[in-house]
Automatic annotation (TrEMBL), chains A, B:
Pfam families: Peptidase_S51. This is Cyanophycinase. The keyword Hydrolase applies. GO terms for molecular function: carboxypeptidase activity; peptidyl-dipeptidase activity; serine-type peptidase activity. It comes from Proteinivorax hydrogeniformans. The active site is at 131 (charge relay system), 173 (charge relay system), 200 (charge relay system). Gene3D superfamilies: 3.40.50.880. Belongs to the peptidase S51 family. InterPro entries: Class_I_gatase-like (IPR029062), Peptidase_S51 (IPR005320), Peptidase_S51_cyanophycinase (IPR011811). Exopeptidase that catalyzes the hydrolytic cleavage of multi-L-arginyl-poly-L-aspartic acid (cyanophycin; a water-insoluble reserve polymer) into aspartate-arginine dipeptides. It catalyses: [L-4-(L-arginin-2-N-yl)aspartate](n) + H2O = [L-4-(L-arginin-2-N-yl)aspartate](n-1) + L-4-(L-arginin-2-N-yl)aspartate. GO terms for biological process: proteolysis. Its EC number is 3.4.15.6.
């Protein structure tokens, strides 16, 4: 596990926006940390980026942040804008909304704004993403595949992600969309990768030591194939079902922590 | 694991009835085994027991069985019928259809027909059950609980089952209805119990040595909490999410085998 520098808040989608706002308040707290916060919302993934941007802007203002900006990236050209780069560089918290994770990577990947993001991340600026914004954070991301399906290679489509967190693959809306099959399929392809399934209204906060903490009302499912003794992945024909034995699975609710480097729950 | 005597064919529901009929043919083969087969269909769980009984009757006749009988048990009184007892005692294969597993246990449990079933089972007569008929086979059965939900105690309802196979709990329509959460919740309550999630058009054949073999187009998920190092089950308040660490999970497709006594895949 590479050392990671920043704080990542990776949200399984459908986070509470009206009642306790536990997860969004955590983001605001991390963006503040004793200074005047500047939150930048990236609705890049969203189809209706204006209304989604406005919605989150209103929420963060309600939560007491004065300086909230929506940064629209609707084309690769936008990713070359000097103004946009400066906006990212001045942010103390960056929030990716849901939508389509391929919009994030295809529009931003390799642009100067992408480099500004990586720089901000290394400085320790908190970067949050919900739903598609969560999926995009890993080096390889899941972009499609049926939920409620048995593990099969056909049900899974993957693509290069933003690479903010490596050696994991993240799935979101996890229990709610029955995505165990596709997460196991991803892990079986390379059991060195940890599969992290995040439920709705639930998030993981990943710190610079690669420890994660669960926040929110549901659970996080961690699938570890590291000690798996058998899989048939490399021999599978299309439509054939997957075999994999001896995976280790952890179910972690709010407050529980997990050490990504050593692949185990933190129980102190 | 208690010694089990018979052959159980436990089907995750929606088994193929039109193309290869892999699972239903396996049942027919086991009911035949070198003798004239007599198949008894138990549509006890079904709301429309007449039409369901007729459907399976037609299928088994198409598969070459001449002696097929539908045994209707619509009240507890029916479970005391001498004719019904004799029908079960003469069967070489007994098939429980889907429907509501509580209908099976509440109508049959403790009746003379139930005892006839147990006797047939000990003689080695194959007993098959699909969907509700599968769920009812374990000593404790799942009767309700949302699919596509995070593991929580609230999502699970259990009841005493038929007890044909012990120390396991069976869930069906497993991947298709996203039932990992509820199966894990069941296992967490007593990690000595093995959780067996059977997908649609997939079955396990459990033999007298308590070895199972997977048959069908999808997979079987086995959840083993035996070596789990931590769970919060006993402290949970309603609506709180479950924690459980270090479960072992196996995904097994067609042809794979598992040793229920020793809790491991058979890899010879």
């Amino acid at each position: 596990m590479e050392k990671i520098e920043g704080n990542l808040l990776i949200i399984g989608g459908a986070e509470d926006k009206e009642k306790g706002c536990t997860i969004l308040k955590e983001f605001v707290k991390l963006a503040e940390e004793g200074r005047e916060a500047k939150i930048v919302i990236m609705p890049t993934a969203a189809e209706k980026s204006d209304s989604v941007g406005r919605m989150y802007s209103d929420i963060f203002k309600d939560l007491g942040i004065r300086d909230v900006e929506v940064l629209k990236i609707d084309s690769r050209a936008d990713g070359f804008s000097k103004v946009a780069q400066r906006t990212i560089e001045e942010a103390t918290g960056i929030f990716f909304t849901g939508g389509d994770q391929l919009k994030i990577t295809s529009l931003l990947g390799g642009t100067p704004v992408d480099f500004s993001l990586q720089k901000a991340y290394k400085k320790g600026v908190v970067i949050a993403g919900t739903s598609a914004g969560a999926a995009a954070m890993s080096a390889t991301m899941i972009i499609g595949g049926n939920g409620d399906s048995t593990p099969q290679m056909d049900i899974l489509n993957m693509a290069p992600g933003m690479g903010l967190v490596n050696q994991v693959v993240i799935d979101q809306h996890f229990a709610q969309r029955g995505r165990l099959g596709r997460l196991i399929s991803a892990v079986a392809q390379n059991p060195y990768i940890l599969g992290i399934g995040i439920d709705e209204d639930t998030a993981i906060l990943v710190d610079a030591q690669a420890n994660l903490k669960v926040i929110g009302s549901q659970t996080v499912t961690i699938v570890d194939g590291f000690n798996s003794t058998y899989t048939n992945v490399s021999e599978l024909k299309p439509k054939q079902a997957l075999a994999i034995t001896d995976m280790v699975v952890h179910i972690l609710p709010h407050g529980y922590r997990f050490d990504l480097k050593n692949r185990k729950p933190i129980t102190d």
